């Protein structure tokens, strides 16, 4: 029984903050700094991300509007070309010349009007495919191809569209036209790989208008404008889309006409004075616009820089995607403006933070410092310093008043502690006296209880063994006497049953041995032999020949480890009986072979000198419930052999000598018996 103590030096119970609970300092700092250092940055980050998304969306919207203007101008070029040719076909001068069948005058009119309209070719073709007049005069239009534009005009409907003329078609009209269309392809990063070195096809604004005169077979007036290297056309688009001051300083608007993925007309610069004619569009843009037929509205790498770009496919008169129309402007000035805006916001946030955080911290410190002093005071009190105080003075705020109340309470606690210490000393003295009395009484009670239990056990077993000896010895004596009478009566005839009689003698002797073991267990003092000094290793050596017949039945290796130099005072037969019992049990535990270790060493126990003998096997082992009962009389795990008295007698012989026996067993690993005997 322990003693109650309120001594200041004794360990005190400490009230520790719960894990996961934040201190007042941390919470106050969080309240002060969370809006500025967490909420505001998150809000600014969200606002900048949203603004960046809107900014990019506005750029895409602008370039989409620019593409709409370029598309409208391109459509207007097509429409205007058709209107001019249709007006020529309806003019009186043209109709008069066609009616007079004057080829030279008609050719001169077509040449003059072609130059006025800015066309590259103009000719009159009849329904049978005969060219009645053409400009240039030596032109041979490619009428062998089935042009949908001409077919519609022959059917009486004016038509205008974009068609792609091959190099032979262009050369048949004019060698100069073929030369203008030819472009050397320039290797371009990110473009689809190609083995072509030149682009010699031409993108033509193809227009046809029906000519319907009385008495004249159906005919069509056909004209065309080559867009390859048509810089006036592309510069006009660029001037319309990107007027002066429509873009921020440093930006540049560009426009391009593509034949397939090749720039055939552009104001994008490859170098300072060279346009990027012959360069090709990136594979990603080509796939979306030409392959999939969708409009591109996004940033793209154009020749040598990033542009906010818009591309749309160009459809020819047959409905095929043959090229692209592009407008865009440099991304760098807008990115610089975006980065500048973000940097201004970040700098402004840092300035605001640098000015406000110290102020917030000063206010927070005025709250948590008094609280920390109170916490420190309470901690010192918990560690035994009952004289600790916060030292708060005045009543300037609520926290100061709480600190003053805490000091008053600590004064009362210190007085109560002084009184408790006085009472505790008296109580400790009384408890110590009562504890000593109880300990002595408890030890006496335990000794008496052990003696009583052992006496009752021995008395009960003594009565049992006495009765067994009386009941068994008398029949055994009768059996032995009658067996001798049978031998005398039978004489030489008894030899015929000699084996059976020998078995009867052996079993009778076995019964006598069992009765002897019972009496030895019940009354060990009466059957104790003469005690003498014995060397345990010598007794072990004497025991091995006695069990050699059992060792030969299985493959068991016997290992000796003899280190003991002391002797024990004990009857040699009893020590031999102890060792043989344990060795035989170990052999029976290893039916399939194993290792039997017999060792000894000098060892002291509770200050007394002695010898320890260890008998260890690698057999089947025993579970804990069996280990707990192996020393109980008549308890055995051998169902067909053994009496269950071997280990009980062994324990009795060891304890009678003042020693002890212990067992350690692990199922399927083995068992170890450790015997300690005093010298």
From TrEMBL:
Catalysed reactions listed for this entry: ATP + protein L-histidine = ADP + protein N-phospho-L-histidine
Compartments it resides in: Cell membrane
SMART domains from the UniProt entry: HAMP, HATPase_c, HisKA
InterPro entries according to UniProt: HAMP_dom, HATPase_C_sf, HATPase_dom, His_kinase_dom, HisK_dim/P_dom, HisK_dim/P_sf, sCache_3, Sensor-like_sf
CC terms in the record's Gene Ontology section: plasma membrane
Transmembrane segments: 28-49, 342-364
Membrane topology: Multi-pass membrane protein
Superkingdom to which the source organism belongs: Bacteria
Chief localization: membrane
The keyword Cytoplasm is annotated on this UniProt entry: no
Protein keywords: Cell membrane, Coiled coil, Kinase, Membrane, Phosphoprotein, Transferase, Transmembrane, Transmembrane helix
Histidine kinase domain mapped to chain residues: 467-679
Keyword Metal-binding: no
Positions of the HAMP domain: 365-418
The EC number(s) this enzyme carries: 2.7.13.3
GO MF, one example: phosphorelay sensor kinase activity
Pfam family, one: HATPase_c
Ranges in coiled-coil conformation: 406-451
Protein's name according to its UniProt entry: histidine kinase
Organism per entry: Roseibium aggregatum
């Amino acid at each position: 029984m322990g003693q109650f103590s309120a001594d200041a030096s004794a360990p005190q119970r400490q009230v520790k903050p719960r894990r996961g609970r934040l201190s007042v300092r941390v919470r106050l700092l969080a309240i002060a700094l969370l809006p500025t250092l967490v909420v505001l940055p998150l809000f600014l980050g969200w606002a900048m991300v949203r603004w960046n998304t809107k900014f990019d969306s506005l750029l895409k919207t602008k370039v989409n509007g620019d593409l709409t203007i370029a598309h409208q101008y391109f459509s207007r070029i097509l429409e205007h070309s058709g209107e001019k040719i249709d007006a020529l076909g309806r003019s009186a001068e043209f109709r008069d010349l066609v009616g007079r069948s004057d080829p030279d005058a008609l050719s001169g009119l077509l040449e003059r009007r072609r130059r006025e309209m800015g066309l590259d070719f103009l000719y009159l073709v009849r329904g049978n495919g005969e060219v009645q007049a053409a400009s240039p005069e030596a032109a041979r239009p490619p009428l062998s191809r089935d042009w949908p534009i001409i077919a519609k005009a022959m059917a009486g409907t004016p038509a205008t569209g974009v068609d792609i003329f091959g190099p032979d078609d262009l050369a048949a009209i004019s060698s100069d036209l073929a030369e203008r269309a030819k472009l050397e392809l320039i290797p371009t990063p990110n473009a689809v790989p190609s083995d072509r070195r030149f682009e010699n096809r031409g993108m033509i604004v193809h227009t046809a208008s029906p000519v319907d005169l009385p008495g004249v077979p159906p005919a069509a007036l056909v004209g065309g404008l080559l867009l390859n290297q048509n810089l006036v056309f592309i510069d006009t688009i660029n001037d319309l889309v990107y007027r002066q001051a429509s873009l921020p300083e440093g930006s540049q608007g560009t426009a391009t006409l593509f034949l397939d993925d090749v720039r055939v007309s552009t104001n994008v610069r490859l170098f300072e004075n060279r346009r990027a004619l012959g360069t090709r569009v990136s594979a990603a843009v080509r796939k979306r616009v030409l392959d999939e037929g969708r409009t591109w509205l996004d940033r793209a790498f154009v020749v040598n820089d990033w542009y906010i770009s818009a591309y749309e496919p160009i459809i020819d008169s047959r409905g095929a995607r043959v090229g692209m129309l592009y407008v865009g402007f440099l991304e760098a000035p807008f990115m610089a403006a975006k980065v500048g805006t973000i940097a201004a916001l970040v700098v402004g946030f840092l300035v605001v933070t640098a000015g406000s955080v110290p102020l917030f911290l000063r206010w927070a410190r005025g709250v948590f410092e008094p609280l920390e002093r109170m916490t420190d005071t309470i901690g010192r009190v918990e560690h035994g310093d009952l004289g600790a105080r916060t030292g708060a003075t005045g009543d300037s705020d609520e926290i100061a008043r709480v600190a003053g109340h805490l000091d008053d309470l600590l004064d009362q606690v210190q007085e109560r502690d002084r009184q408790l210490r006085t009472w505790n000393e008296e109580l400790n003295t009384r408890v110590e006296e009562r504890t000593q009395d109880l300990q002595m009484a408890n030890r006496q009670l335990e000794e008496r209880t052990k003696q009583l239990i052992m006496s009752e056990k021995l008395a009960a077993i003594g009565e049992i063994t006495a009765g067994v000896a009386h009941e068994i010895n008398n029949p055994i004596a009768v059996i032995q006497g009658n067996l001798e009478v049978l031998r005398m009566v039978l004489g030489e005839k008894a030899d015929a049953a000699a084996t059976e009689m020998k078995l009867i003698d052996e079993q009778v002797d076995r019964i006598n041995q069992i009765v002897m073991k019972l009496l030895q267990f019940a009354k060990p003092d009466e059957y104790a032999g003469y005690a003498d000094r014995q060397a345990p290793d010598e007794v072990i050596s004497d025991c091995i020949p006695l069990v050699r017949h059992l060792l030969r039945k299985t493959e068991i290796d016997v290992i000796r480890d003899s280190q003991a130099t002391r002797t024990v005072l004990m009857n040699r037969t009893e020590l031999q009986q102890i060792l043989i019992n344990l060795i035989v049990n170990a052999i029976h535990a290893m039916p399939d072979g194993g290792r039997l270790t017999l060792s000894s060493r000098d060892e002291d126990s509770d200050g007394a000198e002695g010898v320890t003998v260890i008998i260890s096997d690698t057999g089947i082992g025993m579970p804990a419930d069996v280990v707990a009962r192996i020393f109980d009389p008549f308890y055995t795990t051998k169902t067909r052999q053994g009496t269950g008295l071997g280990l009980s007698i062994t324990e009795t012989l060891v304890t009678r000598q003042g020693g002890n026996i212990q067992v350690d067993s692990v199922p399927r690993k083995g068992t170890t018996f450790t015997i300690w005997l005093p010298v």
